[in-house]
């Protein structure tokens, strides 16, 4: 059977993940590269949270384990992948006083979603003028970093491990149901943050179902003045030597015609439909 599914995606969003902050400034999560450019990112934990929530899988029972103030929230020892898709696909660590730690590594792995355009230190100034006027009070001012950019992330799925955990094994129909549900959620993913609902649905995607479990297209996306660099993507497709799917929403990037000519993309919905069919074929 083909063992791995990988998909690298690009979406456009604004200020979708904040860190600790300092003083009256709310800071975006970001990283820097040599040369001084800073790039904002949405953590893989944030992406996972939104996926699980929108799938309705955030109901796996948890408990606080440990003593005193050093308790750790974790899944209850009796939870099983047969009943809870969350721990099947995203793994678990469960501790039992009698048997010690019991772990399952993630079947679905996510990268951080890193911006493809550098952060330029833009700030939004926030006030509570409306509420302050109601009681004739002084106005408070806060600052929030803002950044609108294209972001890229990669998801990989170990298809041969879905629904299998020691002596527990789900039937193939359940495996198909879980993987295809996840793919459909990614197709229409969104994120609620600071009163906004950001659309994380992909405008470009490339990947497929392969013999190898490799994130082939991770770190292969580059933008140059709103143009998507084709060479790293097309050369990777050529090197794989297997059927790769490309999806794209027309009119997003300036080199629209070049993308269509070189990569021959289908519409995004067709890409996800085809991926779901290929997943079904894996488990037949």
From TrEMBL:
<dbReference type="InterPro" id="IPR010154">
    <property type="entry name" value="CRISPR-assoc_Cas7/Cst2/DevR"/>
</dbReference>
<dbReference type="Pfam" id="PF01905">
    <property type="entry name" value="DevR"/>
</dbReference>
<comment type="function">
    <text>CRISPR (clustered regularly interspaced short palindromic repeat) is an adaptive immune system that provides protection against mobile genetic elements (viruses, transposable elements and conjugative plasmids). CRISPR clusters contain spacers, sequences complementary to antecedent mobile elements, and target invading nucleic acids. CRISPR clusters are transcribed and processed into CRISPR RNA (crRNA).</text>
</comment>
<dbReference type="GO" id="GO:0051607">
    <property type="term" value="P:defense response to virus"/>
</dbReference>
<keyword id="KW-0051">Antiviral defense</keyword>
<dbReference type="InterPro" id="IPR013414">
    <property type="entry name" value="Cas7/Cst2/DevR_sub_I-B/Tneap"/>
</dbReference>
<protein>
    <submittedName>
        <fullName>Crispr-associated negative auto-regulator devr/csa2</fullName>
    </submittedName>
</protein>
